[in-house]
Specification:
Elements: H1 4-18, H2 23-28, H3 40-45, H4 55-70, H5 81-90, H6 99-123, E1 129-135, E2 140-148, E3 154-163, H7 170-179
Helix pairs in contact: 4-6
């Protein structure tokens, strides 16, 4: 004999695999496991895709762009079936943008926004220190700015990260930093 929790989980898994449970499965479901009837407003708005420029859609697209950038995710994550199901379950009316849109528009816009924000903050700093770091395994170099803000809190911002071909000698690092300006 299954417990109420086991039956709810079983019905949920059957619903996920088959989209809708059979009449027998519904008849066997314990009280409290059924979904409540939706409101009239929810019924009319369900299935109606939200507008691309709708504030909620724009926010979701930006959050997905941030997830891709911060998590170093591939742009194609928006094409993944599991991700699409998750987003649809959370926001059924949201239409996911294509991986091309994320690559050519959303992430570059996010980059410009972050770059401009960092530029505004750094331009007000009176005294700063720059550090560089190199990664041999990926042939990368980064330049980071460090300063103390008005509240005496240590701050830092990565100003540049780029490919560093060849050996990581002082002369090559100097040449790379000066050529990227």
């Amino acid at each position: 004999m299954r417990t109420k929790r086991q039956l709810c989980v079983h019905i949920s898994s059957v619903s996920l695999a088959a989209k809708t449970p059979t009449a027998t499965e519904v008849a066997r479901s314990p009280a409290g496991c059924e979904k409540k009837q939706q409101s009239v407003l929810a019924a009319f708005s369900q299935g109606k895709p939200s507008e691309f420029n709708d504030p909620r859609s724009l926010r979701l697209t930006r959050l997905i762009a941030e997830m891709i950038a911060v998590g170093d995710q591939p742009f194609g994550v928006v094409c993944d079936d599991g991700f699409r199901r998750l987003v649809h379950a959370l926001e059924p009316c949201y239409t996911l943008p294509s991986d091309t849109y994320m690559r050519k528009t959303a992430v570059p816009e996010l980059y410009k926004l972050v770059r401009d924000t960092v530029h505004k903050v750094v331009s007000k700093v009176q005294s700063m220190r720059l550090t560089t770091d190199t990664w041999t395994s990926e042939s990368l170099i980064s330049v980071t700015d460090h300063w103390i803000d008005a509240s005496w809190q240590r701050q830092s911002a990565v100003l540049q990260t780029s490919h560093l071909p060849g050996s990581h000698t002082a002369a090559n690092i100097k040449e790379k930093i000066l050529s990227d300006q």
